[in-house]
Amino acid sequence: MNHPADPAADPAAESAGSAEPAESGGNPAGTAHAGLVIAVDGPAGSGKSTAARGVARALSLRYLDTGSTYRALTWWLLARGADVSDPATVAADAGRPVIEVGTDPDEPAVRVDGRDVAAAIRTRQVSNAVSAVASVPEVRSHLIAMQRRIIADTLAAGAGIVAEGRDIGTVVAPDAPVKVYLTASEAVRARRRTAELSADSSATVALTQAEQARRDRTDAPQMAMADDAVEIDTSGLGLDDVIGEIVSLAESRTAGAWTR
Length: 260
Ligand code: DC
Known about the structure:
single chain; alpha/beta; Rossmann fold; five-stranded parallel beta sheet; three-stranded antiparallel beta sheet; 9 helices; 8 strands; 12% strand; globular; binds 2'-deoxycytidine-5'-monophosphate
């Protein structure tokens, strides 16, 4: 893995910790549902990323993967050889890298200090370290502020957005008019994650399920279903069914104000 530039030697690091949309320009069609925020929460492997991107495409909305902000910071810490199990080290460095996350559902860019890390943040190494990083309060306050800024900028630009994560409906965007909480059985979630890691031959379903159970335990304090969220068990559903349910919910929750 390449090491990111030393922020101290990087002029861009003067704005360390700021979030900039990684794509310029907007989705012209995104203006069709100006102001709409759809919160999609759920555990790893619940199908939320694929579903959230599908909903964003279906309704011409922008898309924010908040997990990628935690993964980007984790990648940066690992690349520097930091001890991610030490909350004090992680807290001290939380604001140092310049993390940029794009909102294009077709190609959500992720950059750290200008480097494209969209693929690098999906490795098992990052997946196994990210929960510890995401549980540090200073990390959460820093990245949640960044996520809220991206959502606010999107709305200010006249678009709507689907934001996915663990705490969107409860913490990041508690006023979102549409909230879903996706679940799936542990076995289904592990199978989906293993398929995503197909390039890594060491990722068996059993190993993935064990690692997932460990992550679930560390992620638990961050995960909550909002009182006004609708729970969808995706275990036996096809992707189109899940997208269709969320689009229908958006239509009913917003009384057609934003949708076709
Ligand atoms: O969804 P994901 O697997 O890419 O998320 C990566 C990690 O980030 C996961 O361990 C939980 C954490 N996370 C979080 O704490 N809050 C969010 N809103 C999104 C992700």
